[in-house]
Fold:
Amino acid sequence: MATQIIRTLRHKTTGASFLFLFRAKTTSAQYVASRHRDPTFEKLMDNYKNLLKVVSIQDLILSSTSAPPSVSLDFLCRLSQSLHLNRGPAAFLRKYPHIFRIFNHPTKLQPFCTLTPAAFHLVRLESDSIKKSMPLAVTRLVKLLSMSLTKRLPLRAIFKVWRELGLPDDFEDSIISTNSDLFSLQDGNEMNTHVLMLNAHKVHDECLVPAIENWRLVECCKEDCRLDRTELKHSFNHGFPPGMRLKKDFKAKIKEWQRLPYIGPYEEMGVKEMQKRVTISRRMKMEKRAVGIVHEFLSLTLEKMVEVEKISHFRKWFGIDLNMRDLFLDHPGIFYLSTKGKRHTVFLREAYERGCLIEPNPVYDIRRKLLDLVARGRRGWNENDHESNSVEFGEGAGVEEMNHDSR
Structure:
């Protein structure tokens, strides 16, 4: 955490002099608030914060056993606080008629909600795309475990980021159980907890190449590369937000930091290395190692972004002894931290251009279409389209949708 010496006072008592240093500590909240805003990422998060609420309700609907899958508004009312639906579920659902449909249930005689055909179609496309990319999902899980000091991670932490990593919702069966030569589950220290262990990580050494190495290779081959070849060996790609003025001393610190060697995310770091005496030089190297690990973690995610709270669950397993938020704020050229939607989200800056991934993937493209429906809101919605406003039940009975008049 940033600490500044604001004044020095010399206090004299009985002929002796004592030096008192009064320090003003900047709290983490103040440090976050003082960061330089990037309008492109902030605009993206304006819609993304609502997308997260949409996905939460969508998951509840899809987990229903009814036909078609649906949940009652009364049930969503009880979850309004946890879902951050400040004005209630009905007001929120009516904002997105391209995704949700409210109707009167024929037997329970109360309002229910389900997904529109367009939303169901995107759900099927995403599921099919994830199934097709199963080998890549296995590789991502191997890489994630390989970054751990012990090649082990708590299963509950992986459950926090299964969507970000593009794992199927049944990955315990479809990936872990079917690849028993690679993965094994062990009992954790606490009751009813499990730890996922990588069995044969040596076999997959060829895939353990950090994503930053690809950038370094491309930069090295450029004729107009501004970085020295020796400096490039340990450098990271920096791109600062528009309007951010870089002072000379800040540029000098970045140049010094770029040259600093560090232990890569997949390199072994034993207990002796962890127990070495903490010096300024060693702390800087450990900070750069932490940057390398988080950079690789974000590179493994499909959308090159993750909530800070989720990645913090891996901190001790990766051997990171630093405040994660401060780490992102100290390196604005590599990461961008957004606080939209009452949650802190970190982006890998180099992966984005004008609010979109530079190298998209099929799952990202599908999720982006859902984000487009969120951004569309009620635009283009025809209230009198009775064909799209009906919900088909088990025996084909049609039920008219409730009036979506939001006045």
Observations:
- Residues 1-24, 386-390, 393-407 have pLDDT under 50 and may be disordered.
- The two ends are 49 Å apart (CA to CA).
- The chain is about 40% helix and 15% strand.
- The CA atoms of residues 113 and 283 lie 53 Å apart.
